[in-house]
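Internal tracking record. Fields below are filled automatically when a chain is submitted to the structure queue. Please do not edit lines marked as system-generated. If the sequence contains nonstandard residues, flag them in the REMARKS field before resubmitting.
Queue: standard
Priority: normal
Entity type: single polypeptide chain
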Amino acid sequence: MTVPHVLAIALVLEAAVAVFGVRLLFAMGHGFRWAAVASAAVFAALGLPQLHALVGMVSAPAGLTPDAAAELVIYAVSFLLAAGIIVLGALIVEGIGQRDGTVAAMERFRAIADGAPNMLWMSDPAGQNVYFNRKWLEFTGRRREEMGGRNWVQSLHPDDRRRCLDTYFAAVASREPFQMEYRVQRHDREYRWMLDTGLPRFAAGGKFLGFVGSGFDITERKRAEQSLISARDEAQSANRTKSAFLANMSHELRTPLNAIIGFSEIIKAEMFGSVGSPKYRDYANDIYGSAVLLLDLINDILDVSKAEAGKLRPHDDDVDAQEAIASTLRLIRDDPRASGLNFIDDVGPDLPWIRADARMLKQILLNLLSNAVKFTPAGGYVTIGACIDHDGSFILSVRDTGIGIAPDDMPVVMSAFGQADNSVTRQQRGTGLGLPLVKSLTEAHGGMFKLESQLGTGTSATVRLPASRVVARPAWRQAQASS
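SYSTEM-GENERATED OUTPUT FOLLOWS
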């Protein structure tokens, strides 16, 4: 290889080192302009003499002596070696700078974290814990070197460890935020409830760096929740006890009441002869009426108790809804309080039958109509309607022009034994079971009950039974209606 060839190769290598230097300085954060100027200056200082010698050798007739050429080659190799040392040094300096920056950032984080009021921690990408702040260490009574890696799990309640590890490492694998509750042993050996929240950390380029998390002592909140649960359980237990007592009491009262009703009916009908004084017959009528009223009340209490216990089961049968409405309406018209009211029958023609419990259906009708009569002044209107809605469901409604219900009293009248607090209500007899019982009986049939009212204007009660309970009118009934 001739001397010019050697010099040309040296120049190419030096130019490559200059370009590499530009890229390196630019990657290290320096502007492209300054990186280019620095590399050009190095090349000019070391490479231009070789270029000048090469040009002179080519133009001179005698050329370059072997000693001079060897000297230039040695000079070029020295340049490459020096450039490599400069690049390596730059990389080392940059690495030291980054390390110093990382250490400084970590120190700043520790200073902030140790002053935080909550417990903070940090992990590496593998999920190993590398930092716990002072609050966490003081809370657990452990040293920082005792908590690294997975050793923090030793502070957890044995029953919570497996669940917490599964939750934590599932979050590490998915690199998504997580939250979990567990019991951790405090420095005084008491286990306290902790709410731990972890967030993933990422570098600027998207590299996963691990998690940073915070913990809060939620023991008092947990105790409050447990107290509420205990209070709820006690209330439910007391309610079940009350329902059982009412059910037992109702059964016990029915037997003597049936005897009173039966014997008073015999006396008022004078089945075994005249009772003598007409007053005795009047007393028998009063006894009979009061006993029937009391029996109805007991039946309502029993139904409410069954509903609360979830034991209210309808005995389904095909019921002529039109006849049930008509018979209940006739019964209500006989009530002395209904004498001054105007009744409007808004029942659609050829109303289908429904599959329902006949007694419960009449009880729904009777309660709704009784309420309307009770709270509608003389001269008012009571409208009873029934039809099939567009979705096939059966709708039964009772509307009145009575005193209405104030918005604040709505929740009261819909609760068992609840009554609106006004003078008219207090003048009327009742237990406050009517509307809650209607709701329970409707829901027992899979339906919905809706009550709408405006104070001083009136009340509208609507019972909606599902379309599955609507059945076609029997053929014999159709023929009977057409004849």
